[in-house]
Write a structure and sequence with these properties.
The protein is an alpha+beta fold and 616 residues long. The protein folds into 5 domains: 87 residues, Zinc finger, CHC2-typedomain (DNA Primase, Chain A); 140 residues, Alpha-Beta Complex (DNA primase DNAg catalytic core, N-terminal domain), CATH 3.90.980; 121 residues, Dna Topoisomerase Vi A Subunit, Chain: A, domain 2 (3-Layer(aba) Sandwich), CATH 3.40.1360.10; 69 residues, no CATH class; 141 residues, no CATH class. 49% of the residues lie in helices and 9% in strands. Strands 1-2-3-4-5 form a 5-stranded antiparallel beta sheet. It has a 5-stranded mixed beta sheet with strand order 13-12-14-15-16. β3 and β4 form a beta hairpin. The longest helix is centred in the first third of the chain and has 29 residues. Bound molecules: zinc ion.
């Protein structure tokens, strides 16, 4: 999918930058320019200026700079295409589709989105209807404010199975569309289709851009709806089934709010249900997300990592403190090991028995919940605790046995760089536990309590001098990046190698990660658009350094005029050669020579490197 520069210009012209920004932060007019307190760094007096004539913003405090698309990408934490679509909707423009088929598909989807939006409004109106006051009172009694109910568009589905159908028919939607959107069920007895959600509190599920794509519905509690005698006990929660717009396994409830929170540097917290997400958001923990009625999937874990703009991505997974919670955590840890990458992990937090975040915030306030989050353990410590807690290892066989189990576990870490560190930490832990202690037993404590809480984000790690002083390394890395920028269509073929190429030059590595992020979202993007996006994300200088003749002269395959069909093979060959020569991958080659703990510590720091730019 590519967009013409003409379309993008038209989009920028239709929008007034200060208005778009003013919908998101407080903007004050000052002469020909507008001013605001910069949303990208913390400040008390405004140094963020907006120039509507020139269509750019600039912050004199932190140097943030860009156009309206760049602002939305950064502020709303969206990929380029999502930012463009968001802005096009605000400008009342249609993003052009390439083929008539794509246009027809988009039209159908648009109708479904509108249907779901109208349904959301219908449910909201019914929650405000005095006949359903008990439903609204129930939410208010649970501690939700009117504001947060409105923000999350919580509603109520009336008991009347035809009410929604009448409402939507009056707006010219067909039964077929309503069934397709998942809000109506066909009757199995030949009668009229009827509402899927009845007599339930409704939670619209927004996609990353905030459009409703599905619903979750909760029954009212027993004191409001005494259970009827009979065989059928309605499930507490039901969700829309899968539709063209709703893919349960890859989406998380709360994504638009959490995305913005992640962009503001808040930690993402995975909780269990709709009400947990809303209660957290109301308490100021706006990075809360929940899977919808299922255990967390690989896709959801990866999606959480993608939402975090920093190099170090460590969301927190929150589980019940009971046996079921531990089992769920165990399953999550099994899913996670093969997915780990340098800088990517999770922490685990366990709720006190019988509490969920919603109830805990109600009983002990947000501080009580934050205390639980603060006592979280790393994935490594979780696994260690899982095998050792509450057990006694009196004999050599038992000790060897548990070590074997842990080694097997560590073998599931697919990323070699991370695995090296898991192995070394395991050795350390085994040695301090079994070779220095007299007692080989572990006290049984709260599941999350053993082992120290690790907060890697807080450590200040010195910047490493750029290794690209070395000329060969520089040309090697520049050429590889230039080829991908100039020929984005090779991405799929080189993705794995590009992923492994961890550059010690911080700016270049961030550029590499940005390229990967954009291309994973949109592998068919055009060169020009890609470059524009990267420049908008603040990489103008790096692009200038990389995409120029002084690089192409050394490696013709990376120039824009190189033959498309040759680029990928030359890229892979060059990568292989450079790789064996140890270029551009000091981190990885460093692993092979880890000789003492100090070196190892250095390498670990390198991987967890958090630069000062990350805070901007
Ligand atoms: Zn700033």
């Amino acid at each position: 999918m590519s967009l013409s520069p003409h379309f993008l210009d038209e989009l920028r012209n239709r929008l007034t930058l200060s208005e778009i920004i003013g919908r998101r932060i407080k903007v004050t007019r000052a002469g020909r320019e507008s001013k605001a307190c910069c949303p990208f760094h913390s400040e008390k007096s405004p140094s963020f200026t907006i120039n509507d004539d020139k269509q750019f913003y600039h912050c004199f405090g932190c140097g943030a700079h860009g156009d309206v698309i760049g602002f939305i990408m950064k502020h709303d934490n969206l990929a380029f295409m999502d930012a463009v679509e968001t802005l096009a909707a605000e400008a009342g423009m249609q993003v052009p589709k390439q083929t008539p088929q794509a246009a027809a598909k988009a039209k159908k989807e648009k109708d479904l989105y509108e249907l779901l939006e109208d349904t959301t409004v219908f449910f909201e109106q019914h929650l405000r209807d005095s006949r359903n006051a008990d439903a609204l009172n129930y939410l208010l009694e649970r501690g939700l404010s009117q504001e947060i109910i409105a923000e999350f568009k919580v509603g109520f589905a009336p008991d009347d199975g035809q009410a929604l159908r009448k409402f939507l028919s009056a707006k010219d939607y067909t039964d077929k569309d309503m069934i397709k959107a998942g809000v109506l069920r066909p009757s199995t007895r030949g009668g009229d289709p009827y509402a899927f959600f009845r007599d339930r509190v409704m939670f619209p599920v927004p996609d990353r851009r905030g459009r409703t794509v599905a619903f979750g519905g909760r029954i009212l509690p027993d004191h409001l709806r005494p259970p009827q005698r009979g065989d059928f006990v309605p499930p507490k929660y039901i969700n829309s089934s899968e539709t063209v717009l709703f893919h349960k396994g890859s989406m998380l409830y709360g994504e638009p709010t959490a995305r913005r929170a992640a962009a503001d540097g808040q930690t993402l917290v995975l909780v269990e249900g709709y009400l947990d997400v809303i209660a957290c958001a109301q308490a100021g923990i706006r990075g809360a997300l929940a899977p919808m009625g299922t255990a967390v999937t690989e896709e959801q874990l990866i999606s959480m990592w993608k939402m975090i703009p920093d190099f170090t991505k460590i969301p927190l997974l929150c589980f019940d403190g009971d046996n079921a919670g531990r089992k769920a955590a165990r399953r999550a840890s099994e899913r996670l090991l093969p997915l780990l990458e340098p800088g990517r992990s999770v922490n685990f937090a366990f709720m006190p028995d019988g509490e969920d975040p919603d109830s805990l915030i109600k009983s002990s306030g947000v501080k009580g919940f934050q205390k639980i989050l603060g006592s979280s353990v790393s994935l490594f410590d979780f696994i260690w605790n899982f095998y050792t807690q509450g057990r006694v290892f009196k004999t050599p066989e038992l000790r060897a046995g548990v070590i074997k189990q842990l080694e097997n576990e560590v073998a599931h870490v697919a990323n070699q760089e991370v695995q090296v560190h898991y192995k070394s930490q395991l050795r350390e832990k085994v040695s301090e536990t079994f070779f220095k202690r007299k007692e080989y037993g572990f006290k049984k404590r709260d599941f999350g309590g053993y082992g120290k809480s690790r907060n890697q984000g807080g450590a200040v790690i010195p910047m490493r001098p750029p290794s690209t002083k070395n000329r060969a390394t520089r040309i090697f890395t520049h050429a590889l990046l230039a080829a991908v920028i100039n020929h984005p269509h090779i991405f799929e073929g080189v993705e794995d190698a590009l992923c492994e190429l961890t550059l010690s030059d911080v700016a270049l590595d961030r550029l590499r990660q940005n390229i990967m992020g954009i291309l994973s979202d949109d592998p068919l993007i055009e060169r020009k658009v890609l470059i524009e996006q990267l420049k908008n994300s603040g990489f103008a200088q790096e692009i200038g350094d990389i995409c120029n003749e002084s690089v192409y002269v050394h490696a013709s395959f990376c120039s824009p005029s190189a033959k498309e069909e040759d680029v990928q093979s030359s890229w892979l060959k060059s990568w292989q050669d450079g790789h064996s020569a140890g270029l551009g991958n000091e981190i990885q080659s460093g692993w092979k020579n880890v000789s003492c703990e100090e070196d190892e510590e250095k390498l670990r720091n390198l991987l967890l490197m958090k630069t000062s730019d990350d805070e901007i």
